[in-house]
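EI: anyone free to look at a 357-residue chain?
SC: sure, send it
EI:
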Amino acid sequence: MIHLDDIRKKVISSGRYRSEYRASCDNCGVDRGYLTKQNAIKSPNCRKCSHKNISEETINKMSAASKGRVPWNKGLSGVSEETSFKMSIKKLGRSPVNKGQTCSLEQRVKLSCLSRGISVDDFDDFTTEESRRERNRFTDMGLHVACFAAYNYQCDRCSIGGVVLHAHHLMSWKHFPDLRFELTNLVTLCATCHKKFHTIYGNGKTESNTEKQYREYRSSYLMPQGRRSVALVVGVAGAGKSWVCNQLKHLAYYHEHDKNPRSEVRSAIWNAPLGMIIYDPFSHVSTFIKRNSDIFDIKIYVIDETVDVVKYRLASRGGRFTQSVEKRMKRMKNLAKQAYFTGTADEVLIKLLTDLS
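SC: here you go
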């Protein structure tokens, strides 16, 4: 339904005007904002009501057509640099849909039960405020700092230092409240080891974590002998870094730059499976080398492609050869002076295959 007496004029790029009318759903009456007359007549209902009007026969046909179809994004992770930039630009100045809105009491109860692993019938009261006060008290007492000092600011499992550290409770926080503030119940773990522990044994909310679990987890770690070999594959956007690394996944451990926060890359690579590690840092190459040359044997493989090749590859995936890409190409020229090997994407792949064999 459109309201002809409520018209708004809107200027488009060509300098011409078009009429937009205030529209509402013919079925439920919800306000649909301003639409052109053609669009309002073509789609008289809102999205929810349009879906309700689909017959059961059509739904069955849609379901049968989608069976066996592999999603286009299956196996893909992360987004390209160009896509990330476009997404950030699109969001500029746009407020979130739920800004200023609060959850209803029913929604809060359901979320609380879901996080605690209980049914709605077993809900007694909210525990967030009490837990937050206790954790603030834990921080104010400085117990995590005392725990780090007791372990010489190194992870108790992998013995790595100079990384993000966490104070892990041997007997879980929720199920053993009497041991929450006991220093003997704390152990220092790096972010990677801490995350792996809770991935294997749970987060300690539905079932308790115990000291026995941690001892079992710690004994399962095989300490690397000597310095880890890390191959840094660097280059500008469109040079072919991801292509080279993906070709070598079956021969070496590939650590993608967006798998972990920048502060956790050191511990993540140290805890990677034994053998050579391939890493394609998005940026901060010099910083990574400076901070990690003490424990890693780092070799730099620079992919040096011509401007025409980079432009073609960027255009083929919907990107553009921007000024930042041009600056990065100049930086790659300087980095090539200290590189172990420099060449095209094909040449770097052949060299890495030779080094891995």
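EI: The longest strand covers residues 2-11.
SC: 👍
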